[in-house]
Amino acid sequence: MGLFDxxxxxxxxxAEADATRDADPDDLFGMSTAYLTMEAELDFVPxxxxxxCFSSVDSTAFAxxxxxxxxxxxxxxxxxxxxFRRHEDDHGYHWVVLADSDPExxxxxxxxxxxTFGELDFDSRLLAAVFGFTRPRDGTDAYWIYSFRRGAYxxxxxxxxxxxxxxxxxxxxxxxxxxxxxxxxxxxxYPLWPDRDGGRPWE
Length: 203
Hints:
The protein contains six helices and eight strands, in the order H-H-H-E-H-E-E-H-E-E-E-E-E-H. The protein is α+β, with helices and mostly antiparallel strands.
């Protein structure tokens, strides 16, 4: 199974069929308290960016939905200073990438974007929301990924050479379980590798 097929399997329709709870964009607000716990108990501070990953479909209705999402984010940019950009990765998946030093604004913007897809009946195109963190003392990066097909979060701690820090991932899951709806089936803790070491999943 290739990388594209693995992603489709873990974040796609198969994952949705096996899910034990429905996705809810309001789950994203859990990150509004989780980032405080990440800092207080694990010494991880929130990064200055987050992203929403979705798959496209060739239809005018979907194109109009994406335009509306961008319009909402553009209005938010003027109000909160949360910048955004679009990105298409090497596997054909699309990203809305948000940048802001205020984690509350990032959470709100990701939620607004995801909720708009749902209100316009394209919530089935949503794959994942990704929130980044860094441990200042050693520069370690970690991510919380919300799978819309599973209705749950899971941790991802990438290392150089496409290795993962499994110990850190399990520690994150242990500390945040209960505060976030953490995925209990580790088969669905799918790594969203960046294109380069030190990069971010949406780059």
